[in-house]
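name: query_chain
kind: protein
chains: 1
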Amino acid sequence: MDQTKKFFSLRRVFSFTFLFIVVLSLVFLIFVNSDWNIKQIHLMTSSSKAFERILPAGQNSSLRSIEEDNALGYQVTCQPVNQPENNLCGLVLVLPKVEGKGFPLDSYESISFKLHAESTAEDFDGLVRIFVKSYLDESKESPDFVKDYKFHAVRVDRKGFNEVPLSRFKVETWWEDMHNIPFDLSYVDLSTVHSVEFFVHNLPLQDQRTYQLTVSDLKILGVYLEKHTLYMILFYSWLVVGLCFYFIFRYREAKRIKNQAYHDHNTSLLNLNGFKHKYQKLVGYQAIFYRVKIINWNSLVRNFGLSMSNTLLQEIVQNHSVFFRSYFYISARLSHDDLVFVRRRKALSAEDEEKLIRSLLLPINVVGLGELRLDIKIGASIEKSVPVNSQLVLDRAEIASQAILNKDERIQLFSNEISQLAEQKSAIEQQIIQAIEAKAFYLLYMPIFSASRHKIVGVEALLRSNFGDLKNMSPEVYISVAEERGLVREIDAMVINMALNEVAASGLGDDFILSINVSSQELMDTSFVDRFSALVERSGVRFDRLCIEITETFLIDVDAVCVNTIKNLRALGCRLSLDDFGTGYTSFQQLINFPVDEIKIDRSFITDLGDEQGHDVIVDSLVSIASNYDYHVVAEGVENKLLYDRLVAKGCDLMQGYYISKPISLAELAILNQQIVNAEITL
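structure:
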C-alpha cells in the first residue's frame, strides 16, 4: 500500500513538473516572438541625444539638425572646392564609452535608420557606405604603424528606411591592405565601437559638385533572448528533465521490482528472499526471533479458499502494521503458514508478547462467513550473536513451536531441554520409519463387552511394535510423534489393512464389530473414503461390522471436508465413534447434531464414579442422551468389579477395560469370549 502511494505521489510530481515546463516553454516561446523581447536604443530622438558628439566630414561641409515625426535627424552638406584624393562627404556619430571602453554593439542584431543622399553630380549612384569604427583590442599586440581603430563597413541604397544586420559588416580590406594587418587582428569586433559613420559612396569625390546626406531615426536593435539561444536552452532543458525522469523512473522501477522480489505479494511482509537479505545485517548482533506457525492454515484454505485465507492474514497484518513496525526489525512471511518476527537486542516483555499473540489471534468478520481467525503457535529463539546461517536460527525457533504443538501454550522459548526433546522425537521418528520398512508393527485388540448380552461384541485395534526402542515405549508417544512428523497416515493405512485381514481370518461372528482409530489427517483427505473402501472390499469384511473412531478434540477444528468424509463413511454402512469423550469442548448440543453412532466416555470420568458427584452426573446424562437419540455408549477404563456394577446400574451396556481384559490377540480373544459365554469366567 505504501509503495502504491509513493508511486502515485511520484506521478503527481512528474505531472506537475511536466506541466510547469510546458507552460514555461510556451511563455518563453511567446516572449521571444513578441515585441517584449525587442531591445532598442534610439540614438536620435528629440528628448535624448545618445551621441557623445556629431561631426560632419568633408570640405566645405555644414551640419544641421532636422526633426521629423518626433525623430531627430542630421543633414550634412558638402561642396568640395578641389579634388584631392581624400576628399569625402559624410556624418560621424561618436558613441559614448561604456565602463571606459567603446560602446558595445555585439549584443545587438541590427542597426536601422532613414537615409537620403543626393548630389548635383550627374554620375552620382546614390549609394552610401556605413562604417562602424571600433577600438583595437588592447590585449592584442599590434604593429606601431597600426592606428587605434578597426574599420567595418557595408554599402546601402541612398533612399528610404534601412535595417542592416550587424552581421553584414565586414572588416575593410583597404584598412587591412593599407596597414598590412596581421591575421590575428583581422576579425570583426563590434564589442568596443567608437563611432558609426555615414559617407557618400564615391570615395574620394570625383567632381566639384554639391553632396547632401541626411540620416534620421537612427536606432540600434536587438533582442533580450535570441531564438536560437532559447531553442538550445529548451532543447537541453527538456533533455535534462527527460533524462532525470527517465533515470528516476528506472530507479523506481528497479526499486519496485526489488520490492516485489523481497515482499510477499499478499501482505506487506517480507518474503523468504527479503528475510535473508535483511538478516545479513543482523549477523554478529543480539536479536530474538519469533517464528509463528499457523496450524489451521490448511483447514482455512480447504474451507474458504486460498484467496480468502490470504485476505484474512493480510487484514491482520494491516490492522497491526504499526505494532509490527514499532517492535520488530524484520517482519516476514516465509511460506503460507510460516511467519517470523525479529527484534533486535532484547526480547519483548511478557505484556508485549501477549499483545503479539492477541494481534495474530484477532478474528476478522467476513460477510456471509462470520468470524475467521488464525490458530498459531510461536517458537522464540534468543541469539546473543546471530550466526551467518539463518536456517540454524529458524530451526531452533521451529523446534520451540513444535514443543507446544499439542499443548495449550501459545509461545515457547527455545532451550537445551527442548532441543534434547526434539532430538528424542527425531530419534523416535527414525525408529518409526525403520519399523515401517521392517514391518515391525503388530496389532492387539481391546475387547468391548456387552453386559446385557454377556459376551464380547467387538474390539478396538491397538498398534504395538517390537522394533528397537519402540517396544518399550507407550504407543501414545510414538503415535504422537508420527502425527507431528506426517507419518500417521502411513501408519493408519497399515493398521486398517492389518486389522481387516486379521478379522476376516478370525472367524468371529457376523455381528462382531471392529473399531479402528483414524487420524484427523486422514479425514481431511478427500481421497480417504475411496482408499478405505478398496481395502474393505478386498478383505471381504462387511462395512456394517466396522466402526471408525475419532477423538473428541478433533471436533474443534472439524470442517466441511471432514463432515463430508464422515457422511460418506456412514453411507457405506460404517459406524462412527467419538473417542475420549469429555476431554474436549464438545457440548451436548454439538453431540446431538454431529452424525455419530457411538460415544466413548473417557476413563477419567469412569475411574471416579461414586466418589466424584460431577462425574456421576455426566455419565448419567450421557446414558440418558444415548437412550433418547439411539447412541451406543462405551465406558472406557473399567478396571474393577465395583465400577462394572455401577455402570450396569446406570444402564451403560458396553464397556472396556482391564476388568474385562487387557489388549490381546484375536485368537486369545476368541478363547476368552468362549469362556465368558460358558460361564467359565464370571464378570
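note: The chain has a mean pLDDT of 85.
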